[in-house]
Amino acid sequence: MKLKVYYSDDFLKHNQPSHPENAERLRSIIKAVRGSEMEIDFAEPEPLAEEDILAVHDSNMVKLVEKLSEKGGWIDFDTYVSIGSYEIAKLAAGAVCKLAEEICMDEVKNGFALVRPPGHHADRYRSMGFCLFNNAALAANALTKKGKKVLIFDHDVHHGNGTQDIFYERNDVLYQSFHLSPHYPGTGSIEEIGEEDGEGFTVNAPLPRGAGERTVMTLLEEVFIPIAEQFKPDIIIVSAGFDSHYTDMLGGLRLRSDTFYKMIKELKKVQPRLMCTLEGGYNLNLLGRLVVSELEAMAGKELSYTEDEKETRNAREVVNAIKRKMRDYWNI
Ligand SMILES: [Zn+2]
Questions:
Q1: If you measure from the C-alpha of residue 59 to the centroid of ligand 1, how many angstroms do you get, rounded to a whole number?
Q2: 0.85 exceeded by the pTM?
Q3: Residues annotated as part of the active site
């Protein structure tokens, strides 16, 4: 079965050329993906209906995006809305939801939603951090309505505060994230583990500057994968942020192409129904190659672009601290 990629040129219309989260990101990615050897079934998404956006997001937040979208404007200091961004954000959410549904129905094996704007900072009440609506959360929430359990694995350099917040009191969505700390948006400590029914279903790994492949693969091996195996998700949605790569200008972690490839391979062993949705990543020269690395892992192909080990700080102590914290909830 071919990989499926959801993409639309309309995603390029949400744009602010002087902003790091601009249309050139997706232009460089789609060029690399189309130019790769991968066998891919490209599809155009449909926008998610407003009522489905409201299943996760507050109506005032949705109305604000719709209003600003008429003339363009700013939600906050770093989150812009272009003319038409409301429709484009619904299109991004529609792509992620449709791909997740197709994978759950076994119509598609694996795929990548190449979407903008990204989603993981948008919480129930607020668009922020370059994100308008939370694409991964909308997809996960829709699947839980059909009785599915979802793992959202977030490898963006920033903590996905929005995704965490939306599922913080729930046990049908497991949220796992590693991220640079301290860093924007300031959340994602080891102590944040969920509340009520969701206690133990949020797993955060705040990593120091310089941490890279050895730390991340140890985290997967000793924390994330064993917990995921015990949770038994019906699908894995990867919030794929490539700003955790060692060259990224907004980053500080030191992952390499090989790390992204290996993470997808390991996650697929837990649940082969796996998809990625684009979050951050700002190195225009490499973004496309990193996306292709994950597509190659999904397809079971060899990695075509490798880089040398880049980690400068092995944060073993963070792995140990998370294990001590999460042992109350999981056998790790
Ligand atoms: Zn990010």
A1: 25
A2: yes
A3: 121
Q: Residue 132: inside a domain, yes or no?
A: yes
Cβ neighbours of residue 77 closer than 8 Å, sequence gap 6 or more: none
Residue 331 falls inside a structural domain: no
For the stretch 181-235, pLDDT in tens is 999 999 999 999 999 999 999 999 999 999 999 999 999 999 999 999 999 999 9
- How remote is the CA of residue 217 from the centroid of ligand 1, in Å? 20
- Residue 78 resides in a domain: yes
Place 1 in a pLDDT band, splitting at 50, 70 and 90.
Answer: confident
Contacting residues for 317 by C-beta, under 8 A, at least 6 apart: none
Q: Tens of pLDDT along 114-150?
A: 999 999 999 999 999 999 999 999 999 999 999 999 9
Q: What is the CATH number of the domain that holds 182?
A: 3.40.800.20
Give the number of domains in the chain: 1
The dihedral sign for the CA sequence 295, 298, 302, 303: positive
DSSP codes, 201-250: -EEEEEE-TT-BHHHHHHHIIIIIHHHHHHH--SEEEEEE-GGGBTT-TT
User: What is the average pLDDT across 141-169?
Assistant: 98
Domain range spanning residue 181? 3-326
> Which of 185, 70, 195 minimizes the C-alpha distance to 123?
185
Contacts of 180-183 spanning 24+ positions with Cβ under 8 A: 180/206, 180/207, 180/208, 180/209, 180/211, 180/244, 180/251, 180/252, 180/253, 181/206, 181/207, 181/208, 183/157, 183/158, 183/159, 183/252
- Residue 127: inside a domain: yes
Span from the CA of 137 to the centroid of ligand 1 (angstroms)? 16
